[in-house]
C-alpha cells in the first residue's frame, strides 16, 4: 500500500545507511573535535566514499543522480545522529547545485566529481560586513583583465575556509557596480595570491570555523566565472534555495537529536516516588509540543525539496524560506526543552546538549535571518507592502 507522505523506499534505505554511518561518530566525536581544534574530515570523507555527499550531483559527474530531497535526507540523518555536517549546506548543496545548473561542461567535469566524493571542499562567500542581510549592497568587485578577472573586496562569517580548497565568491562586475545585485560568481582557490583570511573568534564551539576574507587584486582565469556575468539573480538562487532547504534539514535533524535525548532521559530519571519525570505534564507537554512542531517542520522541508527537484523554482523559493524558518524555530525550542528536561545535566559536557543551544540558534540567523523570511512571506505570500 502506498501511504501518502511516505518517502520512496530508496530514500528510506538512504536514511538508514547514513544514520548507521553517522552514529559511529555521533555527538561525542563532534564535541571532541570542537574542543581539540579538530575537524570533521574523517567522517566527511567516509560519507563521500559512500556516495552520501554527492547524492544530488548528476551521475555522469560522479554523483548519485538524485535531488535535493535526497541530500536533505542525508544531512537530516547525520544531524539527528548528533553529527551535523555544516559544510554539506555549502559544498554539495550551494556550490554543487550552482555548478550543475550554471557551469560549463568543462567546469562540471573539473569540480563536480570531487565535490561529490568530498575530496574537494568548496566554501561559499556572499556575506559582507557593510551589506549584512542586504546582499544588494555587496561591493566585492570583479574587473576584466585580459582573458581573466581581478577580484577585490572583503567577506565575513565565511564558514570552513581553513578546510576548503576553494571558495565560490559572489561579486559584482565593475559594469554593474551599483543598483540591484547582478551576481558574478567565481571559484577562487584558497591558495590564490592576494587571498587571505582571518579567523573570527566565535562564542560557540564547533569544528567548523568562520573567517573574514580579504581579496586584494586576486587574479583568476576566465573559466573561474561560473555562469554568466550578466545572468541575473536566478544563478544565485540556484544555490540559495538548496541552502535554505539544507538549513532546514540541519535544524530538523538537530531537533530530532535533542528530542530523542530528552525523551529517553524523561523516561529514566525519577526523583519523586517511582514516577519518572516524564510523568509530569510540566515535562511531557513541552516535549509533545516539540514533536508536533518537528513533524510540521519536516513536512515543509520535504515539500520545499520536492518543489525544487520538480524544477518549480518559484514555489520552491517560497517553501524553502518557510521550511528554513520552521527548522530554526523547532531546533531552538527542542534544544531548550532538552536542556531543561535534563536539569543540571543539560549543561554538562557529558550530556552534549549545552553546545546545541548555541548551534541551534544559528538556524534563526543564517543563512537568512528569521526576520528576512518573515519579510519575504509577508510580501510575496501575503501581498503586503514591502517593509524595507
Ligand atoms: C556561524 C555562521 C556561519 C556563517 N557562514 C556563512 C558562510 O559560509 N557564507 C556566507 O556568505 N555567510 C555566512 N554567514 C553569514 C550569515 O549568512 C549572516 O550572518 C546572515 O545573513 C545575517 O546577516 P548579518 O549577520 O549581517 O545580520 P544583519 O543583516 O546585520 O541583521 C542583524 C539583525 O537585524 C535584523 N534585520 C536586518 N534587516 C531587517 C529587516 N529589514 N527587517 C527586520 N529585521 C531585520 C536581522 O534579522 C538580524 O536579526 C554565517 C553566519 C554565522 C553566524
List keywords for this structure.
388 residues, alpha+beta, Butyryl-Coa Dehydrogenase, subunit A, domain 1, Butyryl-CoA Dehydrogenase, subunit A, domain 2, Butyryl-CoA Dehydrogenase, subunit A, domain 3, 3 domains, eight-stranded mixed beta sheet, two-stranded antiparallel sheet, binds flavin-adenine dinucleotide
Q: Can you give a write-up of this model?
A:
The chain has 388 residues and is α+β, with helices and mostly antiparallel strands. It has 3 domains: 113 residues, Acyl-CoA dehydrogenase/oxidase, N-terminal domain (Butyryl-Coa Dehydrogenase, subunit A, domain 1, Orthogonal Bundle), CATH 1.10.540.10; 104 residues, Butyryl-CoA Dehydrogenase, subunit A, domain 2 (Beta Barrel); 148 residues, Butyryl-CoA Dehydrogenase, subunit A, domain 3 (Up-down Bundle), CATH 1.20.140. Helix content is 51%, strand content 15%. It contains 10 helices and 10 strands. The strands form 2 sheets. Strands 1, 2, 3, 4, 5, 6, 7 and 8 form an 8-stranded mixed sheet that branches. A two-stranded antiparallel ribbon has the order 9-10. A hairpin with a 2-residue loop joins strand 9 and strand 10. Helix 3 runs parallel beside helix 6. The longest helix has 35 residues. The site of flavin-adenine dinucleotide has 21 residues, from strand 1, strand 3, helix 9 and helix 10. The site of flavin-adenine dinucleotide (FAD) has 21 residues, from strand 1, strand 3, helix 9 and helix 10. GO terms for molecular function: oxidoreductase activity.
Amino acid at each position: 500500500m502506498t501511504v501518502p507522505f511516505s518517502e520512496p523506499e530508496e530514500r528510506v534505505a538512504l536514511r538508514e545507511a547514513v544514520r548507521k554511518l553517522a552514529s559511529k561518530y555521533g555527538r561525542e566525536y563532534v564535541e571532541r573535535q570542537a574542543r581539540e581544534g579538530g575537524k570533521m574530515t574523517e567522517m566527511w570523507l567516509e560519507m563521500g566514499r559512500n556516495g552520501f555527499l554527492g547524492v544530488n550531483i548528476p551521475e555522469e559527474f560522479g554523483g548519485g543522480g538524485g535531488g535535493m530531497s535526497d541530500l536533505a535526507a542525508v544531512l537530516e540523518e547525520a544531524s539527528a545522529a548528533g553529527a551535523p555536517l555544516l559544510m554539506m549546506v555549502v559544498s554539495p548543496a550551494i556550490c554543487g547545485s550552482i555548478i550543475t545548473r550554471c557551469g560549463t561542461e568543462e567546469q562540471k567535469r573539473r569540480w563536480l566529481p570531487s565535490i561529490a566524493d568530498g575530496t574537494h571542499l568548496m566554501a561559499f562567500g556572499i556575506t559582507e560586513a557593510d551589506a549584512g542581510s542586504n546582499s544588494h549592497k555587496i561591493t566585492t568587485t570583479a574587473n576584466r583583465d585580459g582573458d581573466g578577472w581581478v577580484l577585490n573586496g572583503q567577506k565575513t562569517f565565511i564558514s570552513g575556509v581553513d578546510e576548503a580548497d576553494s571558495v565560490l565568491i559572489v561579486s559584482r562586475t565593475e559594469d554593474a557596480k551599483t543598483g540591484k545585485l547582478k551576481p558574478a560568481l567565481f571559484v577562487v582557490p584558497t591558495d590564490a595570491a592576494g587571498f587571505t583570511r582571518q579567523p573570527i573568534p566565535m562564542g560557540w564551539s564547533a569544528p567548523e570555523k568562520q573567517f573574514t576574507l580579504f581579496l586584494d587584486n586576486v587574479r583568476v582565469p576566465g573559466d573561474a566565472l561560473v555562469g554568466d556575468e550578466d545572468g541575473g539573480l536566478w544563478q544565485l538562487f540556484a544555490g540559495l534555495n538548496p541552502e535554505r532547504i539544507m538549513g532546514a534539514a540541519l535544524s530538523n535533524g538537530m531537533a530530532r537529536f535533542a528530542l530523542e535525548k530528552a525523551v529517553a532521559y524523561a523516561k529514566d530519571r525519577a526523583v519523586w516516588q517511582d514516577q519518572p519525570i516524564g510523568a509530569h505534564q510540566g515535562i511531557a507537554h513541552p516535549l509533545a509540543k516539540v514533536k508536533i512542531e518537528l513533524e510540521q517542520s519536516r513536512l515543509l522541508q520535504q515539500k520545499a525539496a520536492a518543489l525544487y527537484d520538480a524544477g518549480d523554482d518559484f514555489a520552491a523559493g517560497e517553501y524553502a524560506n518557510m521550511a528554513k524558518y520552521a527548522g530554526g524555530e523547532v531546533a531552538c525550542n527542542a534544544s531548550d526543552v532538552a536542556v531543561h528536561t535534563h536539569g543540571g545535566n543539560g549543561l554538562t559536557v557529558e550530556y552534549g546538549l549545552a553546545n546545541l543551544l548555541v548551534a541551534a540558534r544559528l538556524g534563526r540567523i543564517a543563512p537568512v535571518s528569521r526576520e528576512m523570511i518573515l519579510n519575504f512571506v509577508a510580501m510575496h505570500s501575503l501581498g503586503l507592502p514591502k517593509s524595507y
